[in-house]
């Protein structure tokens, strides 16, 4: 009988996220993730097969858990718009410096050039957009947004504003990222606010 796992795959993938923030996906090594997770590199090879296998598991996990920030925000906030702001700020919490953003953008390069990674990234983007649209529809029903606001197209605009805010903040470094995120969201939604 084999030894029981003392470190979950979830914990390893969290360590992978931290290591990507420091090294980017291109500079990432199994040794760096293993150090971050407190494991031997051989353990990662045994579980994921290779660096590519680990990164694909990381991408799949990100897609599977895309809705968690939105679920948590719904539970913590009575207002759909407050929940939307909180969820989008939470999604960006893994980025504290422009250098960490560079690691995420390095992953985007892989997403755009490798079909397996692109499939995960596209599904992640769809899930996030659907979560945004759901909260916007709730905001219309709650009277926070004008009745003429169309949740589908507006969700796309909010998603574009979110991604644009990340890039602009990374380039300018102006203020804290959560404030930049809230400002971009507020500017996008302002024309649709009720009353």
Automatic annotation (TrEMBL):
<feature type="domain" description="HTH tetR-type">
    <location>
        <begin position="6"/>
        <end position="66"/>
    </location>
</feature>
<dbReference type="InterPro" id="IPR009057">
    <property type="entry name" value="Homeodomain-like_sf"/>
</dbReference>
<dbReference type="Pfam" id="PF00440">
    <property type="entry name" value="TetR_N"/>
</dbReference>
<dbReference type="Pfam" id="PF13977">
    <property type="entry name" value="TetR_C_6"/>
</dbReference>
<dbReference type="InterPro" id="IPR036271">
    <property type="entry name" value="Tet_transcr_reg_TetR-rel_C_sf"/>
</dbReference>
<keyword id="KW-0804">Transcription</keyword>
<feature type="DNA-binding region" description="H-T-H motif">
    <location>
        <begin position="29"/>
        <end position="48"/>
    </location>
</feature>
<keyword id="KW-0678">Repressor</keyword>
<keyword id="KW-0805">Transcription regulation</keyword>
<keyword id="KW-0238">DNA-binding</keyword>
<dbReference type="InterPro" id="IPR039538">
    <property type="entry name" value="BetI_C"/>
</dbReference>
<protein>
    <submittedName>
        <fullName>TetR/AcrR family transcriptional regulator</fullName>
    </submittedName>
</protein>
<dbReference type="InterPro" id="IPR001647">
    <property type="entry name" value="HTH_TetR"/>
</dbReference>
């Amino acid at each position: 009988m084999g030894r029981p796992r003392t470190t979950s795959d979830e914990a390893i993938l969290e360590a992978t996220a931290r290591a990507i923030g420091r090294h980017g996906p291109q500079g990432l090594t199994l040794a760096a993730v293993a150090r971050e997770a407190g494991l031997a590199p051989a353990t990662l090879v045994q579980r994921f097969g290779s660096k590519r296998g680990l990164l694909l598991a990381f991408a799949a996990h990100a897609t599977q858990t895309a809705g968690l920030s939105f679920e948590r925000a719904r539970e913590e906030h009575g207002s759909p718009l407050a929940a939307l702001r909180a969820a989008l700020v939470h999604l960006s919490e893994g980025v504290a410096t422009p250098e960490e953003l560079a690691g995420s953008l390095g992953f985007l390069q892989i997403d755009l050039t490798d079909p397996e990674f692109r499939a995960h990234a596209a599904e992640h983007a769809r899930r996030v957009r659907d979560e945004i649209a759901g909260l916007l529809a709730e905001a219309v029903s709650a009277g926070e947004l004008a009745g003429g606001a169309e949740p589908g197209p507006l969700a796309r605009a909010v998603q574009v504003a979110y991604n644009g805010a990340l890039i602009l903040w990374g380039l300018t470094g102006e203020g804290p990222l959560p404030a930049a995120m809230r400002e971009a969201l507020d500017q996008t939604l302002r024309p649709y606010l009720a009353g």
